[in-house]
Amino acid sequence: MKNADSLWLSLIRFANRRVRNSQVLRRAGILAYRSFMQTIIFLPPPKVLLIGPPKSGTHLLSDCLSLMPRMMFSGRHFALTDFYDRSGESGNVSGSEASPALRETDLRNFLKRTPRGMFATAHARFHPSLVRFLEELGFKQVLLLRDPRDVVVSHVFYVKRERLHQHHSYFMEALKSNEECIMATIKGFESSAGYTSISIKERFDGYIAYFDHSSTLVVRFEDLVGPQGGGDAEKQLADIQRIGEFVNRPIDRDQARQIAEKIYGKSTLTFRKGQIGDWRNHFTDAHRRAFKEIAGETLIRLGYEKDTDW
Fold it and tell me: Which one, of 191, 190, 181, lies nearest residue 159 by Cα?
């Protein structure tokens, strides 16, 4: 892999560190980056959308794609809720619940501006209109999943660290311990101060419908993270090559190994620990019982457990 790839990734990480606590700098930096990306027109297709629940390890897959030959980050990230039409009635179905209708023209135009040969990232529960737009615009989508129990723990520490997060003050002031924060993240909450959050079951159930679409490549954090995160080196290399093949950037074993050496980066914006099974160091018996009651079946459907005997 060329040294330029490593330098490019280092510059992105440096910029992330500089803007993490400034909304003004973030917005200005994102707009400038997007504008620059629009000038790059020589990359081959496809366009790629990286989809996954928050705190599933997006940085890991983003770094992997950034290091693929002739593949770059477009600077475009969104949550599907950004495009919900709040003025109307519920529209299409996402998972087992009715989702608000989308502002479809806005969403399509946003996706359309992703240059070919680049990827965007999204926290986007399944929605028929989104899948239709991706097909129309020549996207390939990669769904990144992670054990929801590890996502709970990662989310708690992220919110407590990030002062700009909407729930930071609630976690730091209203909740008295990490244990209370973990329980709130499992169950979801609605406080008298107006703070609300869905349960961990609701966070993940909306992504299960992607399993039925052959246009989606499912990647698991546990396979991609490699030995430094408690995973397996052979699975990591195989997954990197599988991703490269899917996005029309086939790479050999040596190239995959070079990418693997660079993607586990502790200097990324949201990185904390990145270890498989870290939930075992933080869940109490009460957390286990609550999780099994609320999201035990979801864990089985996602393939992380065979039953609730864990």
Answer: 181
Task: Give the model confidence (pLDDT) of 7-62 as tens digits.
Answer: 555 555 555 444 444 444 445 555 555 555 555 567 899 999 999 999 999 889 99
CB 122 within 8 Å of CB 50:
yes
Q: Is the peptide bond before 115 cis (omega within 30 degrees of 0)?
A: no
Q: Classify burial at 21, counting beta carbons within 10 Å of its beta carbon; exposed 0-12, middle 13-18, buried 19 or more.
A: exposed
**And the tokens for 47?**
């366009």
CA dihedral 233, 234, 235, 239 (to 10 degrees): 100
What is the fold, at CATH topology level, of the domain defined by 3-301?
Rossmann fold (3.40.50)
Q: Which residue has the tokens 């366009």?
A: 47
> Cα–Cα distance between 171 and 70 in angstroms, integer?
41
Give pLDDT tens digits for 78-133: 999 999 998 755 444 444 455 679 999 999 999 999 999 999 999 999 999 999 99
Q: Which two tokens stand for residue 299?
A: 């864990």
Alpha-carbon distance of 258 to 56, in angstroms, equals 23
Alpha helix segments (H runs only) across 20-140? 23-37, 58-66, 104-112, 128-136
- Mean pLDDT, residues 216-239: 95
In 3-state terms, what secondary structure has residue 293?
A: helix
Query: Taking the alpha carbons of 107, 108, 112, 116 in that order, is the dihedral positive or negative?
Result: positive
State how far the Cα of 72 lies from the Cα of 81, in Å rounded to an integer: 25
CB crowding 261-295: b at 16 or more within 10 Å, else e: ebbbbeebbbbeebbbebbeebbeeebbebbbebb
Centre a 10 Å sphere on the Cβ of residue 162 and count the other Cβ atoms it contains: 16
With beta carbons less than 8 A apart as the criterion, state whether 240 and 231 touch.
no
Pick the closest to residue 154 from 1, 10, 64, 275 (CA basis).
Answer: 275
